[in-house]
Specification:
Length: 264
């Protein structure tokens, strides 16, 4: 059963809709075997009944109390318990991974260009699901800031994938903690700041000199998007205004306080 579940989850994690459907069918079949019992309909002497009718089987649901004696159900229950108690450990692994990713993106700016691709930006946006823990939300927002820093192409991907809807939805969520709401507002301040074209700046090591001498950053940009594709504050204000009603207040506050040290 563990092998079957493993294969099912592999299919469900695929980007191929056919494999996802196959994984769902496998899980449905497994649960049907556990929860339904087969009972044959006895044939009658009436020869007018079709063979298909006399040999048909009907599925009847089992009582929950009877499942405790079912070996397959006990095995499924044990495996499901494992998933339940691993949630906390998985959350810690995700938070640790985000911390590492944040540091790597700060130390190696060219790596940020990966997040111009939908598949990688979507991984971060999925972590803003309101059902996940607050620590994941806070670390994801911080990682998003680092991924989008001085990378307008990444910001355009973020917008195209409804990133603003994800962030504002998290901010409005009743389950969001005070800290997550503050991190969300800080992220929106960052988003509204003036954009500068991507620069291939570096330190004094050989790798940075190669970048400065004309080497290209890895792109993989959708539709050949230009690294210089920037938007004005007003344009971003209009986009954010689709999801929030007080965007003008955020812009005015940003102009007055200049929280990131940039005048505009």
């Amino acid at each position: 059963m563990e092998s079957l579940l493993s294969h099912s989850f592999d299919y469900l994690s695929s980007n191929d809709s056919a494999k996802i459907r196959k994984g769902l069918r496998q899980l449905e079949g497994l649960l049907a075997q556990i929860c339904l019992s087969q009972s044959s309909v006895t044939s009658t002497p009436d020869k007018r009944r079709s063979i298909a009718t006399t040999q048909s089987k009907e599925s009847t649901p089992k009582d929950l109390g009877s499942l405790k004696d079912d070996a397959a159900f006990r095995e499924f229950f044990k495996l499901q318990e494992g998933f339940q108690w691993n949630d906390g450990q998985n959350d810690l692994l995700i938070v640790s991974t985000l911390d590492l990713l944040h540091g790597i993106l700060l130390m190696h700016p060219p790596s940020r260009s990966l997040f111009a691709r939908e598949i990688y930006m979507n991984l971060l946006l999925d972590l803003l699901d309101p059902t996940l823990c607050p620590a994941i939300h806070s670390n994801t927002l911080l990682t998003l800031v680092t991924a989008m820093l001085s990378n307008p192409a990444n910001t355009r991907s973020f917008e195209e994938l409804d990133g603003l809807l994800c962030v504002t939805g998290l901010f409005k969520s009743r389950s969001a903690t005070r800290e997550v709401k503050m991190k969300s507002v800080e992220f929106l301040y960052f988003y509204l700041m003036p954009e500068a074209p991507a620069e291939m700046t570096g330190m004094k090591d050989g790798g940075s000199r190669r970048l400065a001498s004309g080497a290209q950053w890895p792109t993989g940009l959708k539709n050949g998007r230009d690294l210089q594709d920037t938007r004005t504050i007003e344009e971003k204000q209009d986009l954010l205004g689709r999801y929030m009603s007080n965007v003008q207040d955020l812009v005015e506050d940003l102009r007055e306080s200049m929280p990131f040290g940039a005048a505009f």
